[in-house]
Write a structure and sequence with these properties.
Shape of chain B: globular
Shape of chain A: globular
Number of domains of chain A: 1
Distance between the termini of chain B: 59 Å
Structural class of chain B: alpha/beta
Largest interface: A-B, 30 and 40 residues
CATH topology of the largest domain in chain B: Dimethylsulfoxide Reductase, domain 2
Helix content of chain B: 25-40%
Strand order of the largest sheet of chain B: 5-4-17-16-15-6-7
Distance between the termini of chain A: 11 Å
CATH superfamily of the largest domain in chain B: Dimethylsulfoxide Reductase, domain 2
CATH class of chain A: Alpha Beta
Radius of gyration of chain A: 16 Å
Largest sheet of chain B: 7 strands, mixed
Number of helices of chain A: 5
Number of strands of chain B: 27
Helix content of chain A: 10-25%
CATH topology of chain A: Alpha-Beta Plaits
CATH architecture of the largest domain in chain B: 3-Layer(aba) Sandwich
Radius of gyration of chain B: 25 Å
Oligomer: heterodimer
Number of domains of chain B: 4
Chain lengths: 147, 694
């Protein structure tokens, strides 16, 4: 696992999908690709109230990432310093082996560029001392960038 | 050029108008965030964040267009601004000469940025300004005027400190504003209780402490019973009521028959639950909010429902209480006078086309009655209406029964739309003037009234991508051409802002660092004992309203059980979803459309099974004269008599390729509902539809 991760407070999440749009906007992700995703579940009746849960799904940045192992060109990289898994676009040849290897299909193929893209926790923002766009823009402050 | 900068501004993706921080890199939008100086963080809803996608979308008007074919045929020619403005002003002058200035009317969507268009229509001598509130908040505005002498938005809600929040179909966590939804989540986290009442479940219900599916159109009965308990059990705030409320005795007498047991029969909510709700609200008072609602164009007697909501707030003393309804303070309250163009122009005399202030003395002319426009055009009563300017307002997408509206609009000599989108009305118009987007223009300074009044400014972040113009230019140019240019004494927006700020000691640069100018260092509270001000004739909260009585409108009316729905039909109810609250602005944006591209028809599982409809089936939903095909979504959590769909779908403008023909238009189903009710609203939930499997 990455040293830092995104924690979601279910009590605060309202399923508004702002995280997804902040992600797409920050990373110029085209239609058809969703690097982060809210998966609504419910309603389930609990004490006579129909409760929803909204599961935030991004990349898990695994400690032993299968996508990195599967990549034939070394384009899928895990940073030593913090464990963030990202794609070096220049090295990616778009073979999609990583997509096959990932049990969660986190890497996704961008038809426009012919390369793979995935959640990198907005590492440029992280390196600048900021938080991922989804965390920063979340309407209700339900996402936390945490150690 | 290689630079990154942040520009503080005001969002334009919906009518909440959140304060934003726009990151601009190399002259292009990089990201739109919430303004942390005003929101306490960079939080911003999905629609606001999608402002970047909106800006870089090409499926919006790109230059002035004059119609060359039949109305609605989609045949246009590109013209210059000079040509378009000359064309419009010449036609308007002709109409004014032949029929008088009142033959010209103008509408917008209301809100704080209305000064320019109000100035223009008044300067040319017409009293006929109205906004979209006939299908939004007329009933709640007019109800609050009758109780407190204030528009709805003269108070704000101290959610963060609220202990008990009651929402009637106010789907606050989906039809959302960024700060409001976050504050309500904070409130719940701090132990506050949210009670949610609706005819169907939604994401707001999912966060509630209690959720009740109420029989449709019986919220008024619930409130009469709540008042009954509060009065009979002596739960009201005696000190506050004695000082500030008129009409308690009459109210007590009136609600006597409306017991919780009676209300249980009408609403379907248990009498014990109703009694508990009243007691809990009283116990939490005055940190209580009975929310009056946002879009309240529901039923024929909606006005009285809204009056009882304000009555509950009055009885529990939640006005000007921490955690309650806070009376908004204005710049004038701290000695700042922000100048307004509209106040410099004499208010045109003469009767309005809709009768506000004359035939309908209790209904506010500041909102008007847009649903009466078709009738006024067709019957030429009280006089002919020949020209209509729709300023960022789309009656053919938002008013019920657009086909009926269209018949009237087609009788006009001139129909002009100023918009950033191809609205339904624009597509039917004679001329489209593309306004610069909210990211491409600076608007005049506006006041944000509240506990801490402040001044805000929408600022241009990027150059216009197309041949569009800002509104300050459009109305000044039209005014100049029509000989009333003196009402727009400026040559640039900077000059207008400097004029507005004259005497305040402020300049436009004062908005640079945070996007606003705070006018107080401390929140301003009026003294609850002696310092409250209500704009009613008595200066108090009037449960018996002298204004209403003067207009021969009753202060109380008995609860009238809604008529039984004829066998097999359903009542159509609509609402919004977080990615599309303003259908026309958001539905065709690629990254929002990707998330929700069409509406579905929610139907009660039991009723659906009786009709042999399964979840995911395509069904036909119809009224006489219109039908649509839509996917059914079955749920137990909707009232048996109700079907539900999201508002704003079924786009008929083909150049909007993503939203065109997707889903079903709710307004097309709302036939015959261009009706005036006692609160000034259209009764949109009185739409009865048939549903059958295909």
């Amino acid at each position: 696992m990455s040293k830092r991760f995104i924690y979601q407070d279910q009590d605060r999440c309202i399923g508004c999908l702002a995280c997804e749009i902040h992600c797409k906007t920050e990373n110029d992700v085209p239609v058809g690709i969703r690097l982060s995703r809210i998966v609504p579940s419910g309603p389930t009746m609990i004490d006579d109230v129909p409760r929803m849960s909204f599961v935030f799904m991004g990349c898990f940045h695994c400690s032993e990432p299968l996508c990195v192992e599967a990549c034939p060109t070394g384009a899928m990289i895990q940073r030593q310093a913090d464990g963030i898994v990202y794609v070096d676009s220049d090295a990616c040849v778009g073979c999609r082996e990583c997509i096959e290897a990932c049990p969660c299909s986190c890497p996704q193929y961008n038809e426009d560029t012919g390369k793979v893209t995935k959640c990198d926790y907005c590492k440029d923002r992280i390196d600048a001392g900021l938080k991922p766009a989804c965390v920063t823009g979340c309407t209700t402050g339900a996402l936390y960038w945490t150690e | 050029m290689n630079s990154t900068k942040t520009i503080y501004s005001i969002c334009g993706m919906c009518t909440v108008r959140c304060p934003i921080a726009i990151e601009v890199k190399d002259g292009a939008i990089k990201h739109i965030w919430g303004n942390p100086h005003l929101l306490g963080g960079f939080n911003l809803c999905a629609r606001g964040a999608a402002g970047k996608a909106f800006e870089y979308d090409n499926e919006r008007p790109q230059y002035p267009m004059l119609r060359v074919g039949q109305r609605g045929s989609g045949q246009w020619k590109r013209v210059s601004w000079q040509e378009a403005l000359d064309y419009i002003s010449t036609r308007l002058d002709e109409i004014k000469g032949q029929y008088g200035p009142q033959a010209i009317c103008l509408s917008d969507r209301g809100g704080p940025n209305t000064d320019l268009q109000k100035t223009f229509i008044a300067a040319i001598g017409s009293p006929n300004y109205f906004n979209h509130h006939a299908t939004c908040s007329n009933s709640v505005h007019n109800a609050h005027i009758s109780v407190a002498g204030y528009a709805r938005n003269a108070v704000s809600y101290d959610y963060k400190h609220c202990k008990y929040l009651v929402l009637y179909g106010r789907n606050m966590l989906e039809s959302l504003g960024t700060a409001e939804s976050r504050n309500v989540i904070d409130m719940i986290g701090a132990g506050g209780k949210m009670i949610y009442i609706d005819v169907r479940y939604n994401y707001t219900a999912a966060k509630a402490a209690k959720f009740y599916i109420i029989n449709p159109a019986t919220d008024y009965a619930l409130n009469l019973a709540l008042i009954n308990v509060i009065v009979n059990e002596d739960l009201y705030d005696h000190e506050f009521v004695q000082r500030w409320v008129i009409g308690l005795d009459e109210l007590r007498h009136f609600v006597a028959p409306y017991t919780p047991q009676w209300a249980q029969q009408e609403t379907g909510i248990g009498s014990g639950e109703i009694t508990t709700m009243a007691r809990e609200a009283a116990k939490a008072s005055p940190a209580v909010i009975f929310h009056p609602g946002w879009m309240t164009a529901w039923g024929s007697n909606d006005f009285y429902l809204r009056r009882t909501i304000y009555t509950l707030n009055a009885l529990l003393g939640s006005y000007e209480a921490r955690g309650g309804l806070v009376i908004n303070k204005t710049p004038a309250d701290v000695g700042i006078r922000l100048r307004s163009l509209a106040t410099q122009v004499p208010r045109p005399g003469g009767e309005r086309f809709d009768g506000c202030g004359t035939r309908y003395k209790h209904l506010g002319a500041q909102w008007g009655l847009g649903q009466l426009l078709p009738e006024a055009i067709l019957n030429e009563t009280p006089y002919p209406i020949k020209a209509y300017i729709a300023m960022r307002h789309d009656p053919l997408a938002s008013m019920p029964d657009p086909e009926a509206f269209k018949v009237a609009l087609d009788r006009l000599a001139l129909l002009v739309c100023i918009d950033v989108n191809y609205s339904e009305t624009a597509w039917f118009s004679d001329c489209i003037l593309p306004e610069c987007t909210f990211l491409e223009r600076t608007d005049h300074v506006i006041a944000q009234n509240g506990l801490s009044p402040r001044l805000l400014l929408r600022r241009q972040a990027v150059k216009p991508r197309f041949d569009s113009r800002p509104r300050w230019y459009i109305f000044r140019e039209l005014a100049k051409r029509m000989g009333v240019g003196q009402s727009f004494p400026y040559d640039s927006i900077e000059e207008l802002i400097a004029w507005q700020l004259q005497g305040t000691g402020l300049t436009i640069e004062d908005f640079d660092h945070t996007g606003c100018v705070e006018l107080t260092s401390q929140p301003l509270w009026f003294d609850r004992r002696d310092g409250l001000r209500f704009n009613t004739p008595s200066g108090r909260l009037e449960l018996i309203s002298s204004t209403l009585e003067g207009a021969s409108v009753a202060s109380f009316i008995p609860f009238d059980r809604p008529e039984a729905i004829p066998n097999g039909l359903f009542r159509l109810v609509t609402s919004k979803v977080a990615v599309h609250t303003q259908g026309r602005t958001t539905s065709n944006i690629a990254i929002l459309n990707e998330l929700v591209s069409e509406n579905q028809l929610w139907i009660n599982t039991g009723r659906a099974m009786e009709l042999a409809i399964k979840d995911g089936d395509d069904v036909e939903v119809s009224v006489e004269g219109f039908s649509g095909r839509i996917t059914a979504r079955l749920t137990d959590l909707i009232h048996r008599d109700v079907v539900f769909m999201l508002h704003g779908f079924g786009d008929s403008v083909a150049v909007r390729s993503r939203s065109f023909n997707r889903g079903v238009s709710d307004v097309r189903l709302q036939r015959g509902l261009l009706r005036l009710t006692v609160g000034g609203n259209c009764p949109l939930t009185e739409c009865l539809v048939a549903v059958r499997p295909i």
